[in-house]
Design brief:
The chain is α/β, with parallel strands linked by helices. It has five helices and seven strands. It has one domain: Glutaredoxin, CATH 3.40.30.10. α1 links the parallel β3 and β4. The longest helix has 15 residues.
């Protein structure tokens, strides 16, 4: 599904396994270490996409998703993270690149939700079923990598409604997991 609507020939969309590190230094193994039982993962491949990423984060927060795993003392039902994907060739400069991003951000909430991944971007896109690097992709993902909803590009009013419905379907407090629990897909 794209934007909550059936796609006539959708690629298999699934968050690929990848090692990453948040800008606050927290190591992550994606998708198993995602901070929420369901997490909106905003994947970006270009620095110029930060505005699109920020709009997705603002939308998630407006829909009740916590803005960051920063300071979480118990498991989170839902979360939002941004995942900049950089080529492996930049790995030797990771400390400088991540340090530069962290210094430019300086907000502990944003640092905790920004997970950089250094890998082959084309292979990562193929593994995830992401069709373009020219726009961000938003993936509502369980910790097993199952994507329950996804969209490409700048969030629209339609995306807002579709994401709200998708979040409600996996975080329904009257669901089989009981109050305030999330169906984690497992």
């Amino acid at each position: 599904m794209v934007g909550g609507r059936p796609d006539p020939s959708p690629p298999q969309v699934r968050l690929a396994d990848a090692a990453g590190r948040a800008l606050d230094g927290t190591p992550y193994r994606l998708p198993v270490d995602l901070p929420g039982a369901v997490t909106l993962v905003i994947v970006a491949f270009r620095q110029r996409q930060q505005g699109e990423v920020d709009r997705w984060i603002d939308l998630a927060v407006a829909l009740g998703v916590p803005p960051s795993p920063y300071g979480a003392t118990e498991p989170m039902a839902s979360a939002v993270v941004e995942v900049p994907v950089l080529g492996r060739r930049y790995l030797p400069a990771r400390r400088m690149i991540d340090g530069g991003m962290a210094a430019g951000i300086a907000d502990p909430i944003a640092l905790a939700r920004t997970i950089t991944v250094y890998t082959d971007p084309a292979a990562f896109r193929r593994s995830c079923g992401i069709t373009t690097a020219d726009q961000v992709t938003a993936l509502l993902t369980h910790r097993d990598g199952t994507v329950v909803w996804h969209a490409v590009g700048v969030p629209t009013d339609r995306h807002r409604g579709d994401l709200q419905a998708a979040l409600a379907s996996v975080t329904d407090p009257s669901g089989p997991n009981g109050p305030n629990e999330v169906d984690d897909g497992g």
